[in-house]
Backbone:
């Protein structure tokens, strides 16, 4: 292994260790305030995400950038999901983020409590009909906490260049809430993969795209959403020197 690559591996390991060490430390600091106010819980989560972005830049050379108009009103954000880092970037940018998340995360130490505190909606991804029902009910319960509802239309992390079909859950929310939808594209998987330790230096981007107005038919909405996210994610990945195989 070349010296430069070995050093990047070492930096990646140290970065990951300190990133997860910072989570309980910041949680302990913010928890008394977060118990009293959801605003403080949101501030805690966004502060941590900004810290991760900052430490990634100087420790492993992974800079990050937000492009497009950041949504600040009550909308659905339908985002490409390639790794943990796109979550970090989106949360650091949106003023009132809350997620549709897999049910198991509800019980994760620290992360689960804060996720529920900021208004995230847990669903059982393995059962489609049940997941949609849980999603709709959870969103209804949280209507008193306005913000940016973030959902991953493909349902899971997808490696750079790979394809997974888009699920109907985003369209269900789009119809149910009668809100605009803001697609979001990314290239973070080029630098921070779904699995593994190695982090590549470069510029990770999340780009908020022009919103899709509320009220479009389900089929048309899904076609527009997928086309916007996939085309622009391919463009961002190409900027980073990555091209989809085939």
Residues:
């Amino acid at each position: 292994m070349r010296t430069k690559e070995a050093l990047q591996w070492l930096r990646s390991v140290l970065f990951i260790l300190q990133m997860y060490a910072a989570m309980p430390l910041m949680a302990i600091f913010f928890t008394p305030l977060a118990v009293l106010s959801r605003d403080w819980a949101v501030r805690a989560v966004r502060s941590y995400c900004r810290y991760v972005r900052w430490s990634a830049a100087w420790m492993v050379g992974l800079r990050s950038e937000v492009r497009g108009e950041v949504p600040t009103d009550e909308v659905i954000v339908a985002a490409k999901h390639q790794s943990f880092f796109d979550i970090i970037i989106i949360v650091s940018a949106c003023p009132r983020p809350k997620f549709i998340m897999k049910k198991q995360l509800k019980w994760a130490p620290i992360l689960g409590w804060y996720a529920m505190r900021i208004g995230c909606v847990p669903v059982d991804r393995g059962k489609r009909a049940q997941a949609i029902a849980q999603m709709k009910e959870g969103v209804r319960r949280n209507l008193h906490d306005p913000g940016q509802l973030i959902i991953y239309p493909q349902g899971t992390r997808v490696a750079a260049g790979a394809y997974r079909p888009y699920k109907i859950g985003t369209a269900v929310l789009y119809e149910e809430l009668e809100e605009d939808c803001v697609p979001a594209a990314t290239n973070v998987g080029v630098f921070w993969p779904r699995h593994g330790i190695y982090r590549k230096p470069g510029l990770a981007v999340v780009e908020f795209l022009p919103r899709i107005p509320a009220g479009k038919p389900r089929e048309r909405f899904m076609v527009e959403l997928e086309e916007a996210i996939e085309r622009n994610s391919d463009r961002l990945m190409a900027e980073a020197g990555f091209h989809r195989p085939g």
Observations:
- Residues 63-239 form a domain with the Glycerol-3-phosphate (1)-acyltransferase fold (CATH 3.40.1130.10).
